[in-house]
């Protein structure tokens, strides 16, 4: 399965979610608003909060991270990207007129930013074989790296999840493999976060 087919199936999956659940945590396939916010907390450990920054939200959904950043008082310029046209339409609707916040439905419209974050984009592999999905994930990480001046962060479901609760349509990654991959391919400064109460981990890749 090539990347275009993978993306097409994922786009349909998430477009269906936002159609059914609206701009909620469930609309981007999370269990609850609390778990969605906890993921933001982990991802934003990447960022120096003491100065203004630019950020790409790669797989932005309806733009919940932009709202979180604004509510927490960060000084930022935000660009969200999502492959789902319905997500982008809802994000633009919800954030019309919000200063410093914009959305893009095409990857070529992304620009280099201080940071890029990606939450949940590597979890739902649907019918893609594990090997095909892993290749897609690594190519996407290379693209995210190229968009990030100071660093990037992403999360993935962990292979240490209880076997009886694992689903065949989801991807459970090896955190040690991805730590080593990021360390050897992208930066010497890599942090693995695997100590928060979700069946996933977060990797922070700093370039300085």
Please supply descriptive tags for the structure shown above:
single chain, alpha/beta, globular, seven-stranded mixed β-sheet, 208 residues
Provide a descriptive summary of the structure in words:
This protein has 208 residues and is of the alpha/beta class. Helix content is 37%, strand content 21%. The protein has 6 helices and 7 strands; from the N terminus they run ααβαβαββαβαββ. The chain has helices spanning 3-21, 33-43, 64-71, 85-94, 130-146, 175-185; strands spanning 53-58, 76-81, 101-104, 113-118, 148-157, 189-193, 200-206. It has a 7-stranded mixed beta sheet with strand order 3-2-1-4-5-7-6, sandwiched between helices. It is globular. The protein starts with a helix and ends with a strand.
How would you summarize what this structure contains?
With about 210 residues, the protein is an alpha/beta fold. About 35% of the residues lie in helices and about 20% in strands.
Structural class: alpha/beta
Query: What separation lies between the terminal Cα atoms?
Result: 36 Å
Mean pLDDT: 95
Strand order of the largest sheet: 3-2-1-4-5-7-6
Bulk shape: globular
What's the helix-strand series?
Answer: HHEHEHEEHEHEE
Largest sheet: 7 strands, mixed
Number of helices: 6
Relative helix content: 25-40%
What is the fold's blueprint, element by element?
Blueprint: H1 3-21, H2 33-43, E1 53-58, H3 64-71, E2 76-81, H4 85-94, E3 101-104, E4 113-118, H5 130-146, E5 148-157, H6 175-185, E6 189-193, E7 200-206
Parallel strand pairs: 1-2, 1-4, 2-3, 4-5
Antiparallel strand pairs: 5-7, 6-7
């Amino acid at each position: 399965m090539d990347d275009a087919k993978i993306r097409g199936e994922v786009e349909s999956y998430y477009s269906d979610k936002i159609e059914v659940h609206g701009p909620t945590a469930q609309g981007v396939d999370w269990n609850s608003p609390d778990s969605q916010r906890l993921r933001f907390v982990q991802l934003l450990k990447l960022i120096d909060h003491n100065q203004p920054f630019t950020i790409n939200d790669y797989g932005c959904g309806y733009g919940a991270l932009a709202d979180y950043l604004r509510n927490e008082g960060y000084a930022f310029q935000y660009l969200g990207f999502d492959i789902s046209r319905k997500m982008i339409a809802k994000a633009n609707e919800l954030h019309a007129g919000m200063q410093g916040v914009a959305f893009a439905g095409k990857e070529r419209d992304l620009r280099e930013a201080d940071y890029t974050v990606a939450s949940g984009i590597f979890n739902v592999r649907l019918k893609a074989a594990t090997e095909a999905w892993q290749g897609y994930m690594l190519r996407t990480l290379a693209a995210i790296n190229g968009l990030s001046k100071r660093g990037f962060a992403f999360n993935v479901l962990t292979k240490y999840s209880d076997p009886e609760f694992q689903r065949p349509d989801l991807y459970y990654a090896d955190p040690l493999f991805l730590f080593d991959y990021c360390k050897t391919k992208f930066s010497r400064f890599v942090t693995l976060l695997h100590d928060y109460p979700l069946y996933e981990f977060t990797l922070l890749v700093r370039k300085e």
